[in-house]
Protein backbone atom coordinates (compact mmCIF):
# COMPACT_ATOMS: atom_id res chain seq x y z
CA UNK A 1 0.00 0.00 0.00
CA UNK A 2 1.34 3.42 -0.91
CA UNK A 3 1.68 6.28 1.59
CA UNK A 4 -1.34 8.22 0.26
CA UNK A 5 -3.55 5.14 0.51
CA UNK A 6 -2.32 4.42 4.04
CA UNK A 7 -2.98 8.05 4.99
CA UNK A 8 -6.56 7.75 3.71
CA UNK A 9 -7.02 4.47 5.63
CA UNK A 10 -5.77 6.08 8.83
CA UNK A 11 -8.08 9.08 8.38
CA UNK A 12 -11.05 6.71 8.02
CA UNK A 13 -9.97 4.80 11.14
CA UNK A 14 -9.45 7.98 13.20
CA UNK A 15 -12.54 9.97 12.22
CA UNK A 16 -15.12 9.78 15.02
CA UNK A 17 -12.64 8.67 17.69
CA UNK A 18 -12.34 10.47 21.00
CA UNK A 19 -9.11 11.92 22.40
CA UNK A 20 -8.14 9.93 25.48
CA UNK A 21 -4.78 11.48 26.28
CA UNK A 22 -2.37 14.22 25.24
CA UNK A 23 1.20 14.90 26.20
CA UNK A 24 4.14 16.94 25.06
CA UNK A 25 7.64 15.57 24.64
CA UNK A 26 10.09 18.38 23.92
CA UNK A 27 8.28 20.27 21.11
CA UNK A 28 6.09 17.34 19.97
CA UNK A 29 2.38 17.30 20.77
CA UNK A 30 1.22 13.68 21.07
CA UNK A 31 -2.52 13.03 20.79
CA UNK A 32 -3.92 9.57 21.60
CA UNK A 33 -7.35 8.43 20.40
CA UNK A 34 -9.59 5.75 21.87
CA UNK A 35 -9.08 2.24 20.60
CA UNK A 36 -11.70 -0.30 19.57
CA UNK A 37 -12.41 -3.03 22.16
CA UNK A 38 -10.31 -5.49 20.13
CA UNK A 39 -7.35 -3.10 19.92
CA UNK A 40 -4.52 -3.31 22.42
CA UNK A 41 -3.28 0.26 22.00
CA UNK A 42 -4.57 3.75 21.24
CA UNK A 43 -4.23 5.44 17.85
CA UNK A 44 -1.61 8.21 17.74
CA UNK A 45 -1.08 11.58 16.07
CA UNK A 46 2.28 13.22 16.74
CA UNK A 47 2.57 16.87 15.69
CA UNK A 48 6.17 17.98 15.36
CA UNK A 49 7.68 20.50 15.64
CA UNK A 50 5.27 23.34 14.75
CA UNK A 51 1.62 23.10 15.80
CA UNK A 52 -1.14 24.94 17.62
CA UNK A 53 -4.37 24.11 19.45
CA UNK A 54 -7.26 26.49 18.80
CA UNK A 55 -10.44 26.87 20.81
CA UNK A 56 -13.70 28.30 19.51
CA UNK A 57 -12.49 31.85 20.24
CA UNK A 58 -8.70 31.88 20.59
CA UNK A 59 -5.37 30.08 20.46
CA UNK A 60 -5.07 27.80 23.51
CA UNK A 61 -1.44 26.76 23.16
CA UNK A 62 1.15 25.86 20.59
CA UNK A 63 4.73 24.85 20.03
CA UNK A 64 5.71 28.54 20.12
CA UNK A 65 4.74 28.63 23.80
CA UNK A 66 7.50 26.15 24.60
CA UNK A 67 10.82 27.72 25.48
CA UNK A 68 13.56 25.17 24.83
CA UNK A 69 16.66 25.19 27.00
CA UNK A 70 19.78 26.96 25.76
CA UNK A 71 21.77 24.02 27.05
CA UNK A 72 20.95 20.68 28.61
CA UNK A 73 24.07 20.92 30.78
CA UNK A 74 22.61 23.40 33.28
CA UNK A 75 19.80 22.42 35.66
CA UNK A 76 18.25 25.91 35.75
CA UNK A 77 17.94 25.94 31.94
CA UNK A 78 16.26 22.54 31.96
CA UNK A 79 13.88 23.65 34.75
CA UNK A 80 12.94 26.80 32.82
CA UNK A 81 12.17 24.74 29.70
CA UNK A 82 10.31 22.09 31.69
CA UNK A 83 7.95 24.73 33.08
CA UNK A 84 6.93 25.88 29.59
CA UNK A 85 6.48 22.27 28.43
CA UNK A 86 4.31 21.55 31.48
CA UNK A 87 2.15 24.63 30.83
CA UNK A 88 1.62 23.75 27.15
CA UNK A 89 0.92 20.12 28.08
CA UNK A 90 -1.68 21.15 30.66
CA UNK A 91 -3.38 23.43 28.12
CA UNK A 92 -3.51 20.65 25.51
CA UNK A 93 -5.56 18.49 27.91
CA UNK A 94 -8.63 20.49 26.82
CA UNK A 95 -8.76 18.10 23.84
CA UNK A 96 -9.42 15.07 26.07
CA UNK A 97 -12.98 13.88 25.53
CA UNK A 98 -13.32 15.70 22.19
CA UNK A 99 -14.18 13.72 19.05
CA UNK A 100 -12.19 14.03 15.82
CA UNK A 101 -14.58 15.27 13.13
CA UNK A 102 -12.32 16.04 10.17
CA UNK A 103 -8.69 15.62 9.25
CA UNK A 104 -7.47 17.54 6.19
CA UNK A 105 -4.12 17.37 4.43
CA UNK A 106 -2.81 20.52 2.75
CA UNK A 107 -1.74 19.36 -0.73
CA UNK A 108 1.00 22.03 -1.01
CA UNK A 109 2.67 21.86 2.40
CA UNK A 110 1.54 18.45 3.77
CA UNK A 111 0.42 20.21 6.95
CA UNK A 112 -2.45 18.50 8.75
CA UNK A 113 -5.54 20.30 10.07
CA UNK A 114 -8.02 18.64 12.43
CA UNK A 115 -11.41 19.75 13.64
CA UNK A 116 -12.80 18.35 16.88
CA UNK A 117 -16.12 18.53 18.64
CA UNK A 118 -16.58 21.60 20.81
CA UNK A 119 -15.11 23.88 18.13
CA UNK A 120 -11.51 22.85 18.85
CA UNK A 121 -8.88 22.59 16.13
CA UNK A 122 -5.30 21.38 15.90
CA UNK A 123 -3.01 22.25 13.03
CA UNK A 124 0.55 21.51 12.07
CA UNK A 125 2.36 24.04 9.94
CA UNK A 126 5.71 24.64 8.32
CA UNK A 127 8.12 26.84 10.23
CA UNK A 128 10.75 26.57 7.46
CA UNK A 129 10.71 25.33 3.85
CA UNK A 130 12.55 22.11 4.74
CA UNK A 131 10.69 21.11 7.91
CA UNK A 132 11.38 17.47 8.71
CA UNK A 133 9.31 15.86 10.17
CA UNK A 134 5.88 17.49 10.23
CA UNK A 135 3.57 14.83 11.73
CA UNK A 136 2.98 11.09 12.17
CA UNK A 137 -0.36 9.21 12.20
CA UNK A 138 -0.16 5.70 13.60
CA UNK A 139 -2.31 2.67 14.34
CA UNK A 140 0.08 0.53 16.41
CA UNK A 141 -2.38 -2.39 16.36
CA UNK A 142 -1.90 -2.86 12.61
CA UNK A 143 1.65 -1.51 12.41
CA UNK A 144 0.22 1.14 10.09
CA UNK A 145 1.89 4.55 10.06
CA UNK A 146 2.31 7.53 7.76
CA UNK A 147 4.76 10.38 8.24
CA UNK A 148 4.91 13.75 6.49
CA UNK A 149 7.58 16.33 5.85
CA UNK A 150 7.52 19.38 3.64
CA UNK A 151 8.53 17.07 0.78
CA UNK A 152 5.69 14.57 1.01
CA UNK A 153 4.25 11.50 2.65
CA UNK A 154 6.01 8.25 3.47
CA UNK A 155 4.96 4.94 4.96
CA UNK A 156 6.16 4.06 8.45
CA UNK A 157 6.70 6.14 11.53
CA UNK A 158 10.43 6.43 10.88
CA UNK A 159 10.32 6.46 7.10
CA UNK A 160 12.48 8.76 5.05
CA UNK A 161 10.71 10.96 2.54
CA UNK A 162 12.23 11.47 -0.89
Task: Give an account of the 3D structure.
The protein is 19% helix and 35% strand. The chain is of the alpha+beta class. A 6-stranded antiparallel sheet has the order 1-2-3-9-10-11. The chain has a 5-stranded antiparallel sheet with strand order 5-4-8-7-6, covered by helices on one side. β9 (135-139) and β10 form a beta hairpin. The longest helix is centred in the middle third of the chain and has 18 residues, at 75-92. The relative contact order is 0.21. The mean pLDDT is 88.
The profile of the biggest β sheet is:
6 strands, antiparallel
Main-sheet strand order equals 1-2-3-9-10-11
Q: Tell the overall outline.
A: globular
End-to-end distance: 17 Å
Radius of gyration: 16 Å
Beta-strand percentage? 25-35%
Can you give me a brief rundown of this structure?
The chain is of the alpha+beta class and 162 residues long. The chain has 2 helices and 11 strands, in the order αβββββαββββββ.
Question: Which terms summarize this structure?
Answer:
162 residues; alpha+beta; six-stranded antiparallel beta sheet; five-stranded antiparallel beta sheet; 2 helices; 35% strand
